[in-house]
Each structure stands twice: as structure tokens, then as C-alpha cells.
Amino acid sequence: MKSLLAFTKKEITSQLRSVRLIILGILFVLLGVMNTAIAKLTPLLLDAVSDTISQSGISITPVTVSALDSWMQFFKNIPLGLIVFILLESDIFTREYRSGTLIPPLTKGLARHNVVISKAVVLTTLWTLCYWLCFVITYCCNAYFWDNSVAQNLMFSVVCWWLFGLWVTVSAVFFSTVAKSNIIVLAGVGCSILALYLLSFIPELKAYLPIMLTDGNSLISGIEKAKTYNSAIIITGVLTIAYLAVSFPVFNKRNL
Amino acid sequence: MLHITNLHKSFGDKDVLRGLNLSVPEHSIYGFIGKNGSGKTTTMKTVLGLLKSDAGEIKVNGESVCYGQTATNRYIGYLPDVPEFYPFMTAPEYLTFCGEVTGMRKSDIAKRSEELLTLVGLADEKHRIRGFSRGMKQRLGIAQALFNRPKLLICDEPTSALDPIGRKEILDILLAIRDETTVLFSTHILSDVERICTDVAFLTGGVVRVCGKLSDIKSKYRSEGYILEAENVEDMLKLLQAFPDIKQIGGNQLVFRENGVTVFDVLHFLTDKHIRLLKLERIEPTLESLFMEVTEE
Ligand SMILES: Nc1ncnc2c1ncn2[C@@H]1O[C@H](COP(=O)(O)OP(=O)(O)O)[C@@H](O)[C@H]1O
Ligand SMILES: [Mg+2]
Q1: B225-295 carries CATH number 3.30.70
Q2: Under CATH, which number does the domain B2-213 receive?
Q3: pTM of the prediction?
Q4: Is the ipTM of this complex over 0.90?
Q5: Backbone torsion region of residue B62, taken as left when φ is above 0, otherwise alpha when ψ lies between -120 and 50, otherwise beta
Q6: Ligand 1 pocket test: which of B11, B18, B188 has the largest number of ligand atoms within 8 Å of its C-beta?
């Protein structure tokens, strides 16, 4: 237990003292602000353009925006956050393989499963913090201008997307226990998402795939009911646990 | 302290270790000598349970080593060949981390850190490990390896990448700790071995060829070789004809080993034939000549 805490403390220090954390912080704050800003600015931009366009004979009816538009921006932009998060953190294991920094603690009796636990906990916590930071900022900005309640199932849809990100994060942990370099980790994560994306074109399958959870827009605009997401939630949860469970024996068998 | 019997290990179709036997007695400084690529690192990593052996048994302090979750590592301190530590930490922070990982008490950790940092000369170093030179990392490596007072310290080529002063510092540290711990260190630098080792083993072709106390090995080989120099070519030819085991090594110099012919046979012959010598000298075998001989077989 002591060694697990010591290694986790080291993981946290590693995050705190790296430039990665600063980049992630700035990015997710920026994304949070931008969701509202883009929604707010759209009519102003259209106004500006319509002046010039109306002279050419086409008239644009003035649009009104609401919190719904901002939340749509949220679901459109958050993938960028996840991609950067995975890009920056994909070498959390592999940089230790490459430099051999795991050898001293492991030969001092640190159990191998503690390495996986520490890194998985730190990564998923970091993802959770980044994600909800972005959410809270968008929520507050929206509340300032409009009324958040126009978005239906808001909390539910946001939790769905967070769960999707959690699954992607854990899959990065799993691929890290297999791969030698972070390029392979990225390829593994990318390919598994791509495979799901392609599978989601089969209508009968769509409701069962983790990809379904990223479709927050259908939820907040009321096109889809919350319960149609239930199977996808269960399957994503099971996949997340499975990826994590398989990581331990794989990492135990690794030549370091 | 450490017993390896019949260790086999191959990578793909490449047999690196083919039945290696090694026995390291307690309180020795054991030099594990071999050319680059002879399998020193492989042997050490197998002892630490970082690599899985194909066959053979390893015992540390009487307990068998198993791969993966290696309980015997609690007896061992290990300095890897290219030691790397978390670059974002300072040396004291790293040693504290080591202490916490092994589950030591806070007060012990602080005391031991200070002790070791002084021993390896890093006590005044405030910078992060990111900026450490190779020699500083090597010294920090010894400090972390010694942290939980291991019974066996395994160092993989601790001096190979260092300049003469850095090497001397490391060797001095190893000498200073020999009362507390057994040291096994691999190297291909023979002068280092002569300086500090009590025992040696030569690794070649995947097996240990020669091993034992350094003094025994040296005296065993010392008794065998002689160089003699004749006054002129005729005398030299006479000797060459009489003793087929004698070899010419340039000029009027001859060399022989006492396995076919003894020095007394030669002296008899010289007195019988009234041959004078310029020189008769017993060869001091250097480890180097021994190393060459062992590895070339
Ligand atoms: N992970 C590995 N995969 C394939 N071959 C390896 C691996 N590690 C070592 N070898 C090979 O095993 C041999 C012994 O290597 P090593 O134990 O590092 O030698 P040394 O430490 O004595 O210089 C080398 O020829 C090396 O190429
Ligand atoms: Mg080596």
C-alpha cells in the first residue's frame, strides 16, 4: 500500500512539473469559453455579413441563439480536447520503458500491478478534471447569457461523453501495456475508435457502440430519448473494465 | 549469496546463455568479465526477474528467483547499465521516493538519504536529475541501489562510460561498502577488476569459463609461463628443435608454458649443452592475457 501511494505521488508530481498540465489546462479552459463565445458571436457575424449580402438581393432572417447552440458547440469541440489529451499523455508508460526509469522501483519491490493502478488512476482523474472544468466553464458562461434548461437531458448527455472519454483513456492504458512506443499506443487507440466508427454505420449496431455516447446533440435537442443510450452505456462500462482487467496480466508478463 | 546453475536464455534463434554457472560468495567483490554482447546484462536481468530464463535455477540468499513478481529482489540493490531516474526530481526527492517504495519509515528515509548522498558526493546538489551528467547519475544510481541496505549489490558496467576520475570515484565507493554488502559487478575494463575485485568470472560463449578467487587464478596462471632470451640464433634454434612446445615470439626470444615441458627440463638442457642465456623470466600473467586466452578458445 505504501509503495502504491509513493508511486502515485510520483505520477502526480510528474504531471504537476511538466508542461503537459499547463497545455491541457489552457486548452480545456479555452474550449469551455469558446463554446459560449462562438454561439454568442454567430448572430453578430451573420449580421455583419447580411449587410453586404442584402445589397445583392438575398435577405437573411435574423437568427436567435440560445444555450442549446452553445451546448452543440460543446459536443462539437470536446473531441479536440480528448485528442490533445491522448496525444500528450500517450507516452505515460512508454517513456518509462524507453528510459528504463521503471527498473529501479520495480527491483526495489514495487509490485507491477501498482504501476498500472497508479497510472490508470492518475490518467482517468486527469481526464475527469479537464472534462468537467470545460463543462463548468461553458455552463457558467451559458447561464450568464441564457437559460441552460432549454437543453434537455443535459447532465445525462454530458456524463455519456465523459464515459466515452474514460473508455478511450483506459484503452490508452491497455495499449501502453502492450506497446513499446507511444506511436503504437496512438495507433491502437486510433484504430479501435475507427473500427467502432465504421461499425456504427450498421444501423442495428449503432445503439450498442461506445461511439453512440458521443452523440450528445440528439439528446439535448430531444431527438433521442435517454433510454436509447442505456445499452451503449453498459457496453462501454464493460469494455472499460475489461481493458483495465486485461492490462494487469499483460503488464506482468512484459519483458522490461 | 548468489548461485546460478545451468542458466539458459536465447533471444529468438540467438543463444546468449548456454548453461551458465556462477556462485558468488558472501562479502566478495565479484568481477563478472565478458566482452560486449557476451550476455552480462542478460544474466543480471534474469537474476532480477526482469527477464524470463529458458532453463536453469537462480538462488539469492537461498531463495529461488521467480520472474515477474520477484520477492528475492528485497535482498538486492541494482544499478542498471544506463541508469535513468525521473528527471523532474532532485536527488534527495528520488531517494525519498525509493525509501517510500520499499516502505521504510519517514525518519529512516531522511537519515539514510543524507548518509548516502554524502557517501556518493551528491549532498550539495540542488538541481533536478534532468541536468545530471553521466557520472552523477551513476553515483545517484549507487545511492539508490544501496538504499535499503541490500545483501547483494549488482552493478552493470558501473565504470564503462566514465572518465578515469569518475571511474576511480565509483570504485572507491564500491570498496567503501564491501563490509556491508556483497558486490557483483560486470565490466570489460580489466584494470578496474585488478583494483578492487576479490573474485572473478570470465563469461564467454554463454558459459563461465574460468572463475574463482582472483589471487588463486593469478597464481595458477603465473606458475606456467616463462620467457627466455638466447644469446644468438644458433642457441635459439637448438632450443626450438629440442622442445617442440617452445615458441618463438620475435628476435631471440622464446616463450613456453609449463604444461608439456617444465622449467627444469629446459635448465637441464641448457647446462648439458653449455648454452648461456641473456634472460629467463617468469611471465606475470595480466588479466588481459588471461582474458584473451579464455575468450579466444
Ligand atoms: N531484448 C533483446 N532482444 C534480442 N536480443 C537481445 C536482447 N537483449 C540482448 N540481446 C542480445 O543478447 C546478447 C547479449 O547482450 P547483453 O547481455 O546486453 O551483453 P553484455 O551486457 O554482456 O554486453 C547481445 O548479442 C544482444 O544483441
Ligand atoms: Mg551490458
Answers
A1: yes
A2: 3.40.50.300
A3: 0.83
A4: no
A5: left
A6: B11
